[in-house]
Design goal:
CATH architecture: Alpha-Beta Barrel
Number of domains: 1
Strand content: 15-25%
Helix content: 25-40%
Radius of gyration: 15 Å
Oligomer: single chain
CATH topology: Aconitase, domain 4
CATH class: Alpha Beta
Largest sheet: 7 strands, mixed
Structural class: alpha/beta
Strand order of the largest sheet: 4-3-2-1-5-6-7
CATH superfamily: Aconitase, domain 4
Order of helices and strands: EHHEHEHEEEEHH
Distance between the termini: 24 Å
């Protein structure tokens, strides 16, 4: 699966409360979450996320185990998140909702062209290719299906 997007750079230690503030979780309307994603970090960030690959520092998704954080990022149009490390529960929540994550320490310049291939294990940033760990075949199948629920519906 070869995918492309533009880079949006974020710092390390992005907490799930920063991804989607608790005040927006009173609704189940995912479009509201997408509109307010990262609002407390940067109120103008959400509109820039359509087609983006977030490149962040270590410990992305720390904090609470709220699945809504991964959903909000995906619903905002983010293609993938790249970071040197992820909180483990966020990592699994993201895969389960169909949001690709790539564990890699890559320099970031906002707006850079990004391409990646999860099966082959590479990320290209502005023409410079980086080898990255591949996800397990099962995780790749879950992502290809669009998330865990879609995967299980397909394999019943």
């Amino acid at each position: 699966m070869h995918t492309e997007g533009h880079a949006v750079c974020l710092p390390e230690d992005i907490d799930t409360d920063v991804v989607i503030a608790g005040r927006y979780l009173r609704t189940r309307d995912r479009s509201i979450w997408a509109t307010h994603v990262f609002e407390d970090l940067d109120p103008g960030l959400a509109p820039r996320l359509k087609g983006a690959v977030i490149i962040a520092g270590k410990n992305f998704g720390c904090g609470s185990s709220r699945e809504q954080a991964a959903i909000a990022i995906r619903e905002a149009g983010v293609v993938a998140v790249i970071a040197p490390s992820f909180a483990r529960i966020f990592f699994r929540n993201a895969i389960n909702v169909g949001l690709p994550l790539i564990e890699a320490d890559i320099s970031c310049t906002d707006g850079s062209a990004i391409a990646f291939n999860l099966a082959q294990g590479w990320v290209d940033v502005a023409g410079k290719r980086h080898d990255v760990p591949t996800l397990s075949p099962r995780m790749q199948e879950i992502l290809a299906a669009g998330g865990l629920v879609a995967f299980w519906r397909k394999h019943r």
